[in-house]
Amino acid sequence: MIRVALPHHLQVLAGCNPEVEIDVDGAVTQRSVLDALEARYPMLRGTVRDHVSLQRRPMVRFFADSEDVTHLSPDAVLPGAVASGDEPFRIVGAVAGG
Amino acid sequence: MTITRVLVGTRKGAFILTSDGNRKKWSIDGPHFGGWEVYHMKGSPVEPDRIYASQTSGWFGQIIQRSDDGGRSWSQPGSDDAVEKAAEQGMPQGESNLFAYDTSEATGRPLTTHQFYDGSQKPWKFTRVWHLEPSLDDPDTCYAGIEDAAIFKTTDGGATWRELAGLRGHESAPDWAPGAGGMCLHTIVLDPADKDRIFVAISAAGAFRSDDGGDTWRPINRGLKSDYIPDPTAEVGHCVHRIAIHPSNPNTLFMQKHWDVMRSDDGGDSWREVSGNLPSDFGFAIAVHAHEPETIYVVPILSDSLHYPPDGKLRVYRSRTGGEEWEALTRGLPQKDCYVNVLRDAMAVDAADPCGVYFGTTGGQVYASSDSGDTWESIVRDLPAVLSVEVQTVR
């Protein structure tokens, strides 16, 4: 079980709590976590990463166990504390603008 | 009983203003999609309780919302049965909406490049939906104008969207360039007399027309003159801000261009300027009276550098002669210290008699006139900056 912390607007869109729990098969990576998140919450497709290219949207960042993992390869294994469910994978909207 | 429903898209959500046929007392419902930009909302002419909305964010992308009860409740169209079932158990209530350029061999066009601000070429990239235009005869069919410029169509109520790629594939497309707001297709006008005829406008490429339901397109910019582009009378490159027609006379088009108010009496084949005595012919919005095909409205803005009205006076200008001769409409509008803008999708007319005229400002006011523009009052004062206004007269 993986915990994912979502920013306010995506919580509203998905009708969910600030943190959701999802099951991820195999290695726990950005890609596998986002694949599982979008499968469970289909309205989030296209909101965190581009619908077509699957590239991270420019004003979204990822944190795991206090590390900024935004620029890691989508297939890099995330810290063990995320894989074990002790820490959430955090999706954060950049602080910008009014 | 008649209901008048004003659909207002703002920088921070959507609002629905409702009144009866007298249009004196208004109730305000919202914000819907709080915190998100709502570029446009529009209801189906044949099923008014069906409303499409474009919810967009620089952070989280594009969402299409749909209401089937006049805006009381909303969902993202496209849910399959499993998702619908899960929704009943408090789980997700819809899927997001995919706008992917059609690059297929059968119906698409290759993904090429267009001109960028600095003259370099930039690949086409989807950013947001600027405008939604529901079909005149089928509530499940709706067109979407997007940035980077293209037109999409749904025939299943917004669940899936398909690009009409002939427009993006036009031979002039590499010369299209973004206006200040991006390279957006912001205007879609459907011809009520000919369901195969569609007009669109793109900033900054110009106006285009399809006579075959959107398969093929041609520029219709003859007569436009734009001194800010290298060839002022070029076939494309004009920053057209908005086009409006009267349903009874769809061969006559009225246009607010970046500068200049224009009209065409041959379906866009040729244009002539009708700015006449306007204090400024720069502006964004233009609308046609519901019952008088030669009565048109604009809101003059001082310039493209100064996006506010001349002299700090918010004035709607009305022409009862289809242009050239204009009168200022000021009663009830601020006539000093007013520096708001009125954007291209932010003016609309209702179908009542006398005709109601409505517009929203970047200062968050929505002004309404229930007497064809003679007098005005603000029906809401302190919304976020208004991006779009549409009106429904529901009987």
Description:
- Chain A has 98 residues and is an alpha+beta fold.
- Chain A has one domain (2-93): Ubiquitin-like (UB roll), CATH 3.10.20.30.
- Chain A has helices spanning 8-14, 30-40, 80-83; strands at 2-5, 19-22, 60-64, 67-68, 89-93.
- A five-stranded mixed sheet of chain A has the order 2-1-5-3-4.
- The mean pLDDT of chain A is 93.
- The model of chain B has no long low-confidence stretch (mean pLDDT 94).
- In chain B, strand 17 (240-245) and strand 18 form a beta hairpin.
- Chain B has one helix at residues 81-88, and strands at residues 3-10, 13-20, 27-32, 37-43, 51-57, 61-67, 113-115, 121-123, 128-134, 142-147, 150-154, 162-163, 184-190, 198-203, 206-210, 218-219, 240-245, 253-257, 261-264, 272-273, 286-288, 296-298, 316-319, 327-329, 347-349, 357-360, 366-369, 377-380, 386-394.
- The longest helix of chain B has 8 residues, at 81-88.
- Classes of the chains: A alpha+beta (98), B mainly beta (395).
- The A-B interface holds A 7-10, 12-16, 40-48, 50-52, 57, 59-60, 93-94, 96-97 and B 34-36, 57-63, 76, 79, 83, 90-100, 126.
Describe the structure using short key phrases.
heterodimer; A: 98 residues; alpha+beta; Ubiquitin-like (UB roll); 5-stranded mixed β-sheet; B: mainly beta
What is the strand and helix layout of this fold?
The complex is a heterodimer of chains A (98) and B (395).
Chain A: E1 2-5, H1 8-14, E2 19-22, H2 30-40, E3 60-64, E4 67-68, H3 80-83, E5 89-93
Parallel strand pairs in A: 1-5
Antiparallel strand pairs in A: 1-2, 3-4, 3-5
Chain B: E1 3-10, E2 13-20, E3 27-32, E4 37-43, E5 51-57, E6 61-67, H1 81-88, E7 113-115, E8 121-123, E9 128-134, E10 142-147, E11 150-154, E12 162-163, E13 184-190, E14 198-203, E15 206-210, E16 218-219, E17 240-245, E18 253-257, E19 261-264, E20 272-273, E21 286-288, E22 296-298, E23 316-319, E24 327-329, E25 347-349, E26 357-360, E27 366-369, E28 377-380, E29 386-394
Antiparallel strand pairs in B: 1-2, 1-29, 2-3, 4-5, 5-6, 7-8, 9-10, 10-11, 11-12, 13-14, 14-15, 15-16, 17-18, 18-19, 19-20, 21-22, 22-23, 23-24, 25-26, 26-27, 27-28
